[in-house]
Amino acid sequence: MSAIFKREFKSYFINMSGALFISVLLLFTGIFVTALNLLGQYAAFEYALENVIIVFLLIVPILSMKSIAEDKRARTDTLLYSLPIRLSSIVMGKYLAMLAVFLIPSGIMALYPLLLSQFGAVNFATAYASLFGFVLLGAALIALCMFMSSLTESQVIAAVVGFTSVLLLYFIHAIADMIPSTPAVSLACFLVLAILAALILHHLTKNIAVSAIIGGVLTVLVLVLFVISPSIFEGAFPSLLNAFALFQRYYDFTYGIFNLKDVLFYLSFTAFFLFLTGKSLDKKRWA
Hints:
The protein is mostly helical. 80% of the residues lie in helices and 0% in strands. Helix 9 runs antiparallel to helix 14.
Protein backbone atom coordinates (compact mmCIF):
# COMPACT_ATOMS: atom_id res chain seq x y z
CA MET A 1 0.00 0.00 0.00
CA SER A 2 2.87 2.39 0.75
CA ALA A 3 4.18 2.04 -2.81
CA ILE A 4 0.75 2.92 -4.22
CA PHE A 5 0.50 5.87 -1.84
CA LYS A 6 3.93 7.25 -2.82
CA ARG A 7 3.23 6.81 -6.53
CA GLU A 8 -0.15 8.52 -6.35
CA PHE A 9 0.95 11.32 -4.02
CA LYS A 10 3.89 12.15 -6.26
CA SER A 11 1.69 12.12 -9.36
CA TYR A 12 -0.55 14.87 -7.95
CA PHE A 13 2.38 17.27 -7.98
CA ILE A 14 3.88 16.09 -11.27
CA ASN A 15 0.66 16.93 -13.15
CA MET A 16 0.02 19.99 -10.93
CA SER A 17 -3.50 18.92 -9.89
CA GLY A 18 -2.36 18.65 -6.28
CA ALA A 19 -0.72 22.07 -6.34
CA LEU A 20 -3.82 23.53 -8.01
CA PHE A 21 -6.06 21.97 -5.35
CA ILE A 22 -3.95 23.37 -2.51
CA SER A 23 -3.65 26.79 -4.13
CA VAL A 24 -7.36 27.18 -4.82
CA LEU A 25 -8.38 26.02 -1.35
CA LEU A 26 -5.92 28.36 0.37
CA LEU A 27 -6.81 31.20 -2.00
CA PHE A 28 -10.50 31.09 -1.14
CA THR A 29 -9.73 30.55 2.54
CA GLY A 30 -7.59 33.68 2.45
CA ILE A 31 -10.34 35.63 0.69
CA PHE A 32 -12.99 34.67 3.22
CA VAL A 33 -10.68 35.18 6.20
CA THR A 34 -9.77 38.63 4.91
CA ALA A 35 -13.38 39.61 4.15
CA LEU A 36 -15.09 38.14 7.22
CA ASN A 37 -12.44 38.03 9.90
CA LEU A 38 -10.06 40.89 9.17
CA LEU A 39 -12.21 43.45 7.37
CA GLY A 40 -15.38 42.31 9.13
CA GLN A 41 -13.53 42.34 12.46
CA TYR A 42 -14.76 38.90 13.55
CA ALA A 43 -12.16 36.70 15.20
CA ALA A 44 -14.29 33.56 14.68
CA PHE A 45 -12.45 31.42 12.10
CA GLU A 46 -15.49 29.16 11.75
CA TYR A 47 -17.33 31.97 9.89
CA ALA A 48 -14.77 31.73 7.10
CA LEU A 49 -14.86 27.93 7.02
CA GLU A 50 -18.65 27.95 6.59
CA ASN A 51 -18.13 29.73 3.28
CA VAL A 52 -15.03 27.82 2.16
CA ILE A 53 -16.89 24.49 1.98
CA ILE A 54 -18.67 25.62 -1.21
CA VAL A 55 -15.29 25.38 -2.94
CA PHE A 56 -15.50 21.60 -2.43
CA LEU A 57 -18.06 21.54 -5.27
CA LEU A 58 -15.30 22.22 -7.77
CA ILE A 59 -11.95 21.19 -6.36
CA VAL A 60 -12.78 17.77 -4.91
CA PRO A 61 -14.06 16.34 -8.24
CA ILE A 62 -10.98 17.76 -9.99
CA LEU A 63 -8.64 16.20 -7.43
CA SER A 64 -10.40 12.81 -7.56
CA MET A 65 -11.17 12.53 -11.28
CA LYS A 66 -7.88 10.84 -12.22
CA SER A 67 -7.64 8.50 -9.22
CA ILE A 68 -9.10 5.46 -11.03
CA ALA A 69 -10.23 6.74 -14.43
CA GLU A 70 -6.70 7.58 -15.57
CA ASP A 71 -5.47 4.04 -14.86
CA LYS A 72 -8.40 2.66 -16.83
CA ARG A 73 -7.75 4.98 -19.77
CA ALA A 74 -4.02 4.22 -19.88
CA ARG A 75 -4.65 0.51 -19.21
CA THR A 76 -2.23 0.62 -16.28
CA ASP A 77 -4.99 -0.80 -14.08
CA THR A 78 -4.08 -4.24 -15.44
CA LEU A 79 -0.62 -3.80 -13.94
CA LEU A 80 -2.14 -2.89 -10.59
CA TYR A 81 -4.29 -6.02 -10.63
CA SER A 82 -1.21 -8.16 -11.25
CA LEU A 83 0.57 -6.85 -8.16
CA PRO A 84 0.72 -9.22 -5.16
CA ILE A 85 -1.41 -6.93 -3.01
CA ARG A 86 -5.09 -6.82 -2.19
CA LEU A 87 -7.45 -4.51 -4.01
CA SER A 88 -8.31 -2.90 -0.68
CA SER A 89 -4.65 -1.85 -0.36
CA ILE A 90 -4.77 -0.28 -3.83
CA VAL A 91 -7.94 1.62 -2.98
CA MET A 92 -6.59 2.78 0.38
CA GLY A 93 -3.24 3.78 -1.13
CA LYS A 94 -4.95 5.96 -3.73
CA TYR A 95 -7.41 7.38 -1.21
CA LEU A 96 -4.77 8.20 1.40
CA ALA A 97 -2.71 9.98 -1.27
CA MET A 98 -5.65 12.28 -2.04
CA LEU A 99 -6.34 12.71 1.66
CA ALA A 100 -2.70 13.68 2.24
CA VAL A 101 -2.96 16.35 -0.47
CA PHE A 102 -6.10 17.66 1.26
CA LEU A 103 -4.45 17.65 4.68
CA ILE A 104 -1.62 19.92 3.52
CA PRO A 105 -3.80 23.05 3.18
CA SER A 106 -5.87 21.92 6.18
CA GLY A 107 -2.71 21.87 8.27
CA ILE A 108 -1.82 25.38 7.09
CA MET A 109 -5.36 26.52 7.90
CA ALA A 110 -4.85 25.27 11.46
CA LEU A 111 -2.53 28.26 11.94
CA TYR A 112 -5.25 30.79 11.11
CA PRO A 113 -6.96 30.79 14.56
CA LEU A 114 -3.56 31.45 16.12
CA LEU A 115 -3.02 34.41 13.80
CA LEU A 116 -6.55 35.72 14.38
CA SER A 117 -6.01 35.56 18.13
CA GLN A 118 -3.61 38.48 17.68
CA PHE A 119 -6.56 40.64 16.61
CA GLY A 120 -9.27 39.48 19.01
CA ALA A 121 -10.56 36.75 21.31
CA VAL A 122 -10.75 33.42 19.46
CA ASN A 123 -12.78 30.46 20.70
CA PHE A 124 -10.15 27.83 19.90
CA ALA A 125 -12.45 24.93 20.77
CA THR A 126 -15.06 26.04 18.21
CA ALA A 127 -12.43 27.00 15.62
CA TYR A 128 -10.64 23.66 15.70
CA ALA A 129 -13.88 21.68 16.00
CA SER A 130 -14.95 23.45 12.79
CA LEU A 131 -11.66 22.55 11.13
CA PHE A 132 -12.04 18.93 12.28
CA GLY A 133 -15.51 18.79 10.76
CA PHE A 134 -14.10 20.45 7.62
CA VAL A 135 -11.57 17.62 7.28
CA LEU A 136 -14.23 14.94 7.86
CA LEU A 137 -16.49 16.50 5.22
CA GLY A 138 -13.66 16.75 2.71
CA ALA A 139 -12.57 13.15 3.38
CA ALA A 140 -16.13 11.90 2.79
CA LEU A 141 -16.49 13.82 -0.47
CA ILE A 142 -13.12 12.56 -1.73
CA ALA A 143 -14.27 8.96 -1.13
CA LEU A 144 -17.52 9.66 -3.01
CA CYS A 145 -15.75 11.22 -6.01
CA MET A 146 -13.17 8.43 -6.03
CA PHE A 147 -16.00 5.94 -6.47
CA MET A 148 -17.36 8.01 -9.34
CA SER A 149 -13.91 7.91 -10.94
CA SER A 150 -13.95 4.11 -10.72
CA LEU A 151 -17.06 3.95 -12.92
CA THR A 152 -15.52 5.44 -16.05
CA GLU A 153 -12.35 5.71 -18.12
CA SER A 154 -12.86 9.41 -18.82
CA GLN A 155 -11.50 11.96 -16.36
CA VAL A 156 -13.93 14.55 -17.73
CA ILE A 157 -16.93 12.30 -17.12
CA ALA A 158 -15.58 11.43 -13.65
CA ALA A 159 -15.24 15.14 -12.83
CA VAL A 160 -18.73 15.98 -14.14
CA VAL A 161 -20.40 13.09 -12.30
CA GLY A 162 -18.43 13.90 -9.15
CA PHE A 163 -19.42 17.57 -9.37
CA THR A 164 -23.07 16.62 -9.88
CA SER A 165 -23.00 14.25 -6.89
CA VAL A 166 -21.42 16.84 -4.59
CA LEU A 167 -23.83 19.50 -5.87
CA LEU A 168 -26.81 17.27 -5.06
CA LEU A 169 -25.45 16.70 -1.56
CA TYR A 170 -24.99 20.44 -1.14
CA PHE A 171 -28.63 21.13 -2.03
CA ILE A 172 -30.14 17.91 -0.66
CA HIS A 173 -31.58 19.68 2.38
CA ALA A 174 -33.38 22.19 0.14
CA ILE A 175 -34.54 19.38 -2.16
CA ALA A 176 -35.97 17.49 0.82
CA ASP A 177 -37.97 20.56 1.81
CA MET A 178 -39.53 20.70 -1.68
CA ILE A 179 -40.73 17.07 -1.67
CA PRO A 180 -44.29 16.58 -0.36
CA SER A 181 -44.43 14.62 2.88
CA THR A 182 -47.45 12.51 1.85
CA PRO A 183 -47.14 8.72 2.20
CA ALA A 184 -47.85 8.16 -1.52
CA VAL A 185 -44.94 10.37 -2.60
CA SER A 186 -42.57 8.65 -0.18
CA LEU A 187 -43.75 5.26 -1.44
CA ALA A 188 -43.03 6.24 -5.04
CA CYS A 189 -39.58 7.56 -4.10
CA PHE A 190 -38.65 4.40 -2.18
CA LEU A 191 -39.74 2.24 -5.13
CA VAL A 192 -37.45 4.28 -7.38
CA LEU A 193 -34.63 3.78 -4.86
CA ALA A 194 -35.21 0.01 -4.94
CA ILE A 195 -34.84 0.03 -8.71
CA LEU A 196 -31.72 2.18 -8.55
CA ALA A 197 -30.22 -0.16 -5.94
CA ALA A 198 -30.79 -3.10 -8.27
CA LEU A 199 -29.19 -1.24 -11.19
CA ILE A 200 -26.14 -0.27 -9.14
CA LEU A 201 -25.79 -3.85 -7.90
CA HIS A 202 -25.98 -5.10 -11.49
CA HIS A 203 -23.28 -2.63 -12.52
CA LEU A 204 -21.00 -3.83 -9.73
CA THR A 205 -21.62 -7.57 -10.10
CA LYS A 206 -22.90 -8.01 -13.68
CA ASN A 207 -25.21 -10.66 -12.20
CA ILE A 208 -28.72 -10.07 -13.55
CA ALA A 209 -30.36 -12.75 -11.41
CA VAL A 210 -28.98 -11.48 -8.10
CA SER A 211 -29.74 -7.86 -9.02
CA ALA A 212 -33.31 -8.74 -10.01
CA ILE A 213 -33.88 -10.73 -6.82
CA ILE A 214 -32.53 -7.94 -4.58
CA GLY A 215 -34.57 -5.33 -6.45
CA GLY A 216 -37.69 -7.50 -6.23
CA VAL A 217 -37.24 -8.15 -2.52
CA LEU A 218 -36.76 -4.46 -1.78
CA THR A 219 -39.82 -3.55 -3.86
CA VAL A 220 -42.02 -6.14 -2.15
CA LEU A 221 -40.75 -5.12 1.28
CA VAL A 222 -41.61 -1.46 0.62
CA LEU A 223 -45.08 -2.35 -0.67
CA VAL A 224 -45.81 -4.65 2.28
CA LEU A 225 -44.76 -1.99 4.78
CA PHE A 226 -46.97 0.53 3.01
CA VAL A 227 -50.00 -1.80 3.15
CA ILE A 228 -49.42 -2.65 6.82
CA SER A 229 -48.73 0.86 8.05
CA PRO A 230 -48.90 3.69 5.50
CA SER A 231 -48.48 6.23 8.28
CA ILE A 232 -44.78 5.38 8.64
CA PHE A 233 -44.26 6.73 5.12
CA GLU A 234 -45.48 10.18 6.19
CA GLY A 235 -42.47 12.41 5.49
CA ALA A 236 -40.20 9.35 5.42
CA PHE A 237 -38.37 10.14 2.18
CA PRO A 238 -37.62 13.80 3.00
CA SER A 239 -36.31 12.59 6.38
CA LEU A 240 -34.07 10.09 4.59
CA LEU A 241 -32.67 12.81 2.35
CA ASN A 242 -31.99 15.04 5.34
CA ALA A 243 -30.10 12.17 6.97
CA PHE A 244 -27.63 12.32 4.07
CA ALA A 245 -27.21 16.09 4.17
CA LEU A 246 -23.43 16.05 4.64
CA PHE A 247 -23.06 19.81 4.42
CA GLN A 248 -25.85 20.46 6.93
CA ARG A 249 -24.18 18.13 9.42
CA TYR A 250 -21.04 20.23 9.15
CA TYR A 251 -22.75 23.34 10.52
CA ASP A 252 -23.07 21.71 13.95
CA PHE A 253 -19.27 21.81 14.20
CA THR A 254 -19.24 25.54 13.38
CA TYR A 255 -21.69 26.13 16.23
CA GLY A 256 -19.30 24.46 18.63
CA ILE A 257 -21.39 21.26 18.82
CA PHE A 258 -19.22 18.13 18.72
CA ASN A 259 -21.76 15.44 17.90
CA LEU A 260 -20.30 11.94 17.90
CA LYS A 261 -23.14 10.77 15.63
CA ASP A 262 -21.99 13.20 12.94
CA VAL A 263 -18.41 11.99 13.25
CA LEU A 264 -19.50 8.36 12.91
CA PHE A 265 -21.73 9.26 9.97
CA TYR A 266 -18.85 10.90 8.07
CA LEU A 267 -16.57 7.94 8.80
CA SER A 268 -19.27 5.43 7.76
CA PHE A 269 -20.02 7.40 4.58
CA THR A 270 -16.32 7.39 3.71
CA ALA A 271 -15.91 3.66 4.43
CA PHE A 272 -19.03 2.81 2.40
CA PHE A 273 -17.81 4.51 -0.76
CA LEU A 274 -14.32 3.09 -0.37
CA PHE A 275 -15.98 -0.32 -0.16
CA LEU A 276 -17.97 0.40 -3.34
CA THR A 277 -14.79 1.52 -5.08
CA GLY A 278 -13.15 -1.77 -4.16
CA LYS A 279 -16.14 -3.69 -5.52
CA SER A 280 -16.03 -1.66 -8.72
CA LEU A 281 -12.36 -2.51 -9.22
CA ASP A 282 -12.98 -6.13 -8.33
CA LYS A 283 -15.61 -6.35 -11.08
CA LYS A 284 -13.09 -4.97 -13.58
CA ARG A 285 -10.42 -7.36 -12.34
CA TRP A 286 -12.47 -10.45 -13.15
CA ALA A 287 -14.17 -9.05 -16.27
